[in-house]
Specification:
The chain is α/β, with parallel strands linked by helices. The chain has 14 helices and 17 strands. The strands form three sheets. It has a seven-stranded mixed beta sheet. The longest helix is centred in the last third of the chain and has 21 residues. The structure holds zinc ion. The site of zinc ion has 8 residues, from loops.
Length: 409
Amino acid sequence: MKNLCRFCEAPLHHVFVDLGMSPPCQTHIEPHALNDRETFYPLCAYICDRCFLVQLPEYVSPEEIFTEYAYFSSYADTWLQHMKSYADTIVQRFQLDKNSRVVEIASNDGYLLQYFVQKGIPVLGIEPAGNVAEAALRNNIPTIVKFFGTQTAHELATEKGQADLLIGNNVLAHVPALNDFVEGMKILLKPGGVVTMEFPHLMRLMAENQFDTIYHEHFSYYSFTTVEKIFAEHGLSLFDVEELPTHGGSLRIYACHDGDTSKPVDCRTAELKRREEAAGCARLETYFTFSEKVKQTKRKLLEFLIRAKGAGNSIAGYGAPGKGNTLLNYCGIRTDFVDYTVDRNPYKQGKFTPGTHIPIHHPDKIRQTQPDFVLILPWNLKDEIMEQMSYIRAWGGRFIVPIPEVKIY
Ligand SMILES: [Zn+2]
């Protein structure tokens, strides 16, 4: 396999971080399949020395990952609040109404589009996972089951018309054919229309040691500076950016067609580029320091777990997210440390975590078994989870948050 940058096609010579071998993170194991063979793929991220895009080669195909995807966005409360306030703000800012068209790429179960439907604005969701799209259709959110790219964009532009607002939240990281995807947005966007996209910010990933957000589903990791170059290559200009707390620190970028003078460029864009430059985002050496930090985090977490188990403590997990899979597999944490984990998503309950085979139960299991420690795997939701689970204090239970480094609450 020739290893070329998926944006600029330069050869990839430099490893960003090597997290060993890992199974795809959403393939939760059914009890009857526990003794079957599992496929592990390399989890080695590279940095392009020409455009500074951090990326995983396409070890696992999108068809394998996304056609039956277990993540239903609606299960996270804070995420829903975040989406509702986005819908309120964007409708007002760009004056969307019943004559507008809102299209969301990777619309999941319709968690976001529902807020536009409530306002009487026509919507269309594009979602590659059939089982997830069905959930959207049951909620009366028009959704087509497709991967997005230039071909889908041409079809939709012809059959249904272009979009006034084109949304892509947490999809840009998931796209292997990046240039075809961004070109598709150019095609589907109405003249005068707006694209907004949210994705985890590479600068935060590095600063806060969020190595577990690297998994096979996430093909690319972006700084603002690099994403601006990618959009510019396809005739789209970034005119605004917001920094969000979601997923450990994300960016929301706003794009329009090149030459659309109705969208003045906000000073936040230049300010963020200055900060990225100061943080060393355009110097290869900056990226080389990350790997050692990751190894140290693993050693510290294992030291803590070994001590806790040595003292006779019981440990349960909370959540079975993709990032948890990277953490557990990379650190080699199985039922020797964590008895079980729990997840609110019924789709995951009764199954086992990929590779590490930790059983996944309903959250009530924690109340029943009263573990001494609860390891929070979706650490980006730690405040919400600690509040929901505060009852573990009654038996002296404490929380372990593994990232940016192991911390007990
Ligand atoms: Zn490149």
